[in-house]
Write a structure and sequence with these properties.
Aldehyde Oxidoreductase, domain 4; 5-stranded mixed sheet; 25% strand; 718 residues; 7-stranded mixed sheet; alpha+beta
Amino acid sequence: MEPKDISRRKFIRATGLSATALTLGFYFSGESKASTIIKGEDAENYGVSLNSWIHIDTNGKVTIVCHRAEMGQGAYQAIPQMIAEELEVNLNEVNIIFGKGDTVKYGSQVTGGSSTVRGSYKNLLKLSASARDMLITAAAAKWSVSTAECFAEAGHVIHRSSGKKMHYGELVVDASKLEAPKNVQLKKVADYKLIRKPLPRQDTPLKTNGTAVFGIDKKIPGMLYAMVERNPRLRGKVKSYDDSAALKVPGVKKVFKVTMKVFSTDREGVAVVADSTWAAMQGRKALKVVWDDTGFEYVSTEEIYKKMKAELQSKDGLSAKKQGDPDPVLAQQKNKLDVIYETPYQAHACMEPLNCVAHHKGDSIEIWGPIQAPDWVQGDISQKMGIKKENVQVNMTFLGGGFGRKAFLDYTHEACLISKEAGAPVQVIWTREDDMTQGPFRPGVSYRAEGAVNNGEITAVKFRMCGQNIGHWMGSKKDVPNDSVLEGFQPHYFDNIKNISFSDIPFETPVPIMWWRSVYASTNGFAYESFMDELAVAAGKDPLAFRKQYLKNERCQKLLEKVEELSGWKARKPKQGYGVAITECFSSTVAQVVKVSKDATGKIKIDKVWAVIDCGWYVNADTVRAQVEGSIIMALGAATNHEIHFKDGLAVEKNFTTYRMPRINEIPPIEVHIMDNNEDAGGVGEPGLPPFTPALTNAIFDLTGKRIRKLPFDLAKV
């Protein structure tokens, strides 16, 4: 089953329903952030684009357009679950289709920042409730009764006193003639039948029986296949190449040079186009390429971190936030803490390597693939290829992982260039080694943390961050601090720490960098929450009580009390190490406690992880738990298993043999608790990652007295 990408007009024409179906959507007029719900035919008459829509046909089938990608985080489940709740239909009666890339119609389509639910849930609930009320109004008119005497349930409108009922399919013609209501009453949380329930995901059967179509599965008529030999040194040019042997490989059609953009730089390579992936792969192996690698720095990991450390010792950096003035307090403190934390570069290592199908048709282009940002791709290809934006069609498939990498624009641009040169639709496949070594990577970042305590109280804290700025690669000004310096730091610490500052020391290397799950919170969280632990020890305080002392906000207090209760924090026993951390990421706060001990050989083992998330309003408890569990496992790998090293300008780790993923037998028991409240929705896909590593290293300190400040580290060698 492949999600289809069709326009509303084509959809209605294909179903043969035209105006005999109810189609609703919302749009934003001018600069207004408030949405207005209108019918599909009215949108066409007014000349506006619906931002999203619900379509109910005369059989009662409900179709909802999803403008965001599904890469395992649960959008394919959450959106129909929300719609089904307020629309009062069974979940299996809701069909979801992916919308094409279109910034005018959908606004931001970037699936990142844990934003799919929190960015659209209020509008989607309002949209589906509006459709429900229009159907109730249509039924009430048929029965000549008031709408108050009617209710909706399981795809029907029912008259309370008589028990008469009509299926939605019988009502859509009349409902489509009504005006969309301006105000609708949404359900209370206590009345939910589907939302907040751990319902099975709609995409699970597709992904287990092999019918789900990922980018790498996509096939179109006449499609050729391509692989590219790219410069292994991140930058550099093709000096010359010999394709004679490659062209002798059966199935190889063409060999030519290709240059794709990586931010403002170029990455050159040689494309081999063939009639099968295997032929393209063998043709690539037969290529002989001479590279020109002059004119740029051959970076190494040791040099990068040596320079970072020197910068942290000699510069204050650009001020990101300052409260009070920690400098004079720290200057007078003889026994202040002054430590360095180091976090490594990481690959995204998605299970589905990069791939893209592109068909350049002269004055138009169509693209299919695992794409996190279809709207960005549409704009980028339009600009780079000189084709009108409306003639660039970007179709999303399922993604086998993304973590930020598939929101980048290099692989889609490259596929379009190859299709144009080949004169045919082409699928470009990246090998695991391509994906691992070419980047962009999560930036490695170092931190200097200074702090002082007096009489058990924090008197001053000063954080300096030194690492590559993703914004600089995207063209932002270099004289302003990284806007993610505070990412991960629980903001309510500012309520009770009088003297505290954060600064950014700009740092440049040729290594291309990009977002990685939870972005800078993935590195910030380790430094900031490790240092809070060091301050607690210096103050002679229990680490969890110490955090409660400085996070007096009600939601933070309840969160910390819950993780304290679940983990049995107050009943800790000898020869057990307990560590705690709390971070905020994409409007959600997560606290974690990790328990460690030593096995019979004296090696550290993780006994259990307790995680409590306050994400406000949420859809599916199972999805929330799965995302927190997945985040913890990803954090475990980044903390103890893998790192991208650079030597002589080359990425060293090339595959899972050296960039080792955690194995199932290495995963500790994980217990996840979700806080119930009526606060606005926060993110879910990423906030569970940042607190794990500091909670783990804090637990190791509690057990062994050894403070870990450099990642990754080997659990077996602590």
